[in-house]
Specification:
By secondary structure, the chain is an alpha+beta fold. Helix content is 25%, strand content 34%. A five-stranded mixed beta sheet has the order 1-7-9-5-3. The protein has a five-stranded mixed beta sheet with strand order 4-2-10-6-8, with no helix packed on it.
Length: 203
């Protein structure tokens, strides 16, 4: 079947090129969210899985969790885990906190990327809830505790490579991002009303 059958010669060629460019642009736009979804579902690339709860039971065997935190060189936040290590039973829901502080005099928005190591554990480490799912905004001088709840799927003990994993490292990195529009508007200096300006002049 020919594309653009009503066009002939150069006009049809131009229309076909425009169509190709449009399709390629659409694929490029969709590739990032599709890749993120694929990683979340499969654990590919060290991306933790996401679930609402563990349905595979809890084992007596424990595993050690390590928590790391970094910030981008352009991100002025202070960011660190409350505890560096934690032992949890495999299948048990764990809860960890990260502390974030904005030492500047302006509101700052940040988003977190995350990774799990070793790679063999990424398909079994599952997040239930995490601050990294949403944009975070800290006001000047504000300090917050950011929770992440998780579990390690018991199937890891039967995996050819996962059964040898005794320590899992969860790493976060925060990057500064644009403030939401409502935060930007609130942070901008407001113009003085005529009444306020007159009162200042009189003083």
């Amino acid at each position: 079947m020919k594309l653009f059958p009503n066009l002939q010669g150069p006009e049809r060629t131009r229309a076909q090129l425009v169509g190709v460019v449009f399709i390629m642009g659409s694929l490029a736009w969709a590739s990032v969210p599709l890749y993120d979804w694929f990683c979340r579902v499969t654990g590919f690339g060290g991306t933790p899985l996401v679930a609402e709860a563990n349905d595979n039971g809890i084992l007596d065997q424990t595993i050690t969790m390590r928590f790391d935190a970094t910030v981008d060189s352009n991100m002025p936040w202070e960011f660190e885990p409350e505890v560096r290590t934690m032992d949890v039973r495999i299948g048990e829901t764990g809860l960890a906190f990260y502390r974030a502080h904005n030492p500047t005099d302006r509101p700052i928005a940040g988003t977190a990327s995350y990774n799990v190591a070793p790679y063999a554990a990424s398909g079994f480490f599952t997040k239930i809830d995490c601050f990294c799912f949403e944009l975070q905004v800290l006001e000047p001088g504000q300090t917050v505790m950011m929770p992440v709840s998780f579990y390690v799927d018991p199937e890891i003990v039967d995996d050819r490579e996962g059964q040898y994993v005794h320590t899992i490292t969860l790493s976060y990195a925060f990057y500064e991002t644009d403030l939401p529009e409502e935060e930007t508007a609130r942070a901008e200096p407001q113009a003085l009303t005529p009444t306020a300006a007159q009162a200042i002049e009189q003083n």
